[in-house]
Design goal:
Distance between the termini: 22 Å
Shape: extended
Number of strands: 10
Largest sheet: 6 strands, antiparallel
Radius of gyration: 34 Å
Number of helices: 8
Order of helices and strands: HHEEHEEHHHHEEEHEEE
Strand content: 15-25%
């Protein structure tokens, strides 16, 4: 994702930041914004190669979430127009606050109505226990001699679960019949497992082939104890990439990776360091960097 040095007006800048934040890194890197001619909307430009892909559907859903509309002026000339959010009137804000208070009061009332009978029941149980007389020595000896209840055997549990509702109940009481039933149940479970695996394996894959593994350049250059290679993004723009597998022993790579990981945890897409935009891949198996860009000034 390109670094944004030149800012739009606050309302439009907030919409642009939210859209970039909600998009996956691979898609966010390829989109860009510019100010609409009227100055009251943003124009979102995206790579034409996204047409017809699942990534295009994802981009379309995110942009529509913020009121954006798809605009097409012919083949090869399409973009999204994102309008400036309209400020909410004080009456609307007050109405929303009233609804939230009413909802909270309703939830509190429901909790109290459920908790009240439970509290009464617990209180009555405590009072009954307090009224009980302490056991005598004879009662204590009788309780010690009482038989300990036994738990049902696995065979009994099996009979209760399967044999009671079985159509052949009463006709197969031997242990051999029981073993045969268990064997057939195991076979049915195995067949169901195989069917589930086959169903999962037959599902079509919707992952775009545009992000499949590609042949990386052979040449490398070392800077600050980090080994970099030069690659190109979806728009054909060059950027540098440092693979984690090639920098296992680099302390500089580990430190930069931690900084970018902390930034991602804080909701940031990357960091601007020494005039270059640094970002961490979605799988966190490589670090990328490219020259920072500026959005065009209004009227230019």
């Amino acid at each position: 994702m390109s670094a944004q040095k030149q800012k739009f007006e606050p309302a439009l800048q907030e919409v642009a930041d939210k859209i970039l934040h909600d998009l996956p890194e691979e898609i966010a890197m390829g989109v860009s914004f510019k100010l609409h001619e009227g100055g009251d909307a943003l124009v979102l430009v995206y790579p034409l190669g996204l047409h017809g892909s699942p990534e295009m559907q994802l981009l379309d859903g995110v942009v529509h979430r913020y009121g954006g509309a798809f605009v097409s002026r012919g083949k090869g000339d399409s973009y999204y127009l994102v309008p400036k959010p309209k400020p909410k009137l004080p009456a609307v804000l007050a109405n929303e606050a009233t609804k939230q208070r009413e909802k909270a009061a309703s939830e509190t009332s429901q909790v109290q109505s459920v908790a009240a009978p439970v509290a009464v029941s617990v209180s009555e149980g405590i009072q009954k226990d307090e009224l009980k007389q302490p056991p005598t020595s004879s009662d204590s000896s009788n309780s010690q001699s009482a038989p300990v209840p036994k738990q049902p055997s696995p065979k009994t549990l099996f009979n209760q679960k399967y044999c009671v509702v079985c159509a052949d109940s009463g006709f197969c009481s031997s242990d051999e019949s029981l073993r045969l039933c268990i064997a057939m149940l195991k076979l049915q479970a195995l067949e169901a497992l195989v069917a589930s695996v086959e169903k999962l394996a037959s599902r079509p894959s919707y992952r775009s082939t545009r992000y499949s593994a590609k042949q990386l350049p052979v040449e490398r250059h070392v800077e600050g104890d980090i080994k970099w290679l030069t690659d190109k993004n979806q728009k054909g723009e060059p950027y540098e990439k440092a693979l984690k597998t090639e920098n296992q022993a680099s302390q500089a790579y580990a430190a930069l990776e931690k900084m970018l990981s902390d930034a991602a945890t804080a909701g940031k897409k990357g960091l601007l360091l020494e005039g270059k935009w640094h970002f961490l891949s979605t799988q966190r198996d490589w670090i990328g960097r490219k020259l920072a860009k500026e959005f065009p000034q209004r009227g230019q």
